[in-house]
Amino acid sequence: MTGIVQQVKRASANAIRELYSIDIQEDSVLVNATKPEFEGDYTVVLFAFIKLLKTSPEALGQALGKRMVEQNPQLFSSFNVIKGFLNLVITDSYWISFLQEQAANPDYGIQPRRNEKVMVEYSSPNTNKPLHLGHLRNNFLGWSLAAILEANGYDIVKTCIVNDRGIHICKSMLAWEMFADGATPASTGIKGDHFVGDYYVKFNNVYKEEVRVLVEGGMKEEEAEKEAPVLKAAQQMLQRWEAGDPAVLDLWRRMNEWVYEGFDITYRRIGSDFDKKYYESNTYLLGKKIVEQGLKKNVFFKKEDGSVWIDLTPDGLDEKVVMRRDGTSVYITQDIGLAEQKQEEFHANQSIYVVGDEQNYHFKVLKLICEKLQLPSAENIFHLSYGMVELPSGKMKSREGTVVDADDLLDEMVAISQQKTEELGKVKDFTGDELAALYDTLGLGALKFFLLRVDPKKRMIFHPEESIDFHGFTGPFVQYTYARIRSVIRKIGDAASAVPFGPEAESLLPLERELVLHLEQFPVLLQEAGAEHDPSKLALYLFVLARIFNSFYTAHSIAQAETEGKKQLRIRLAEMTASVIKTGMRLLGIGVPERM
Question: Which contacts of 564-567 are long-range, i.e. CB under 8 A and separated by 24 or more positions?
Answer without folding.
Answer: 564/499, 564/502, 564/504, 565/501, 565/502, 565/503, 565/504, 565/505, 565/506, 566/504, 566/505, 567/496
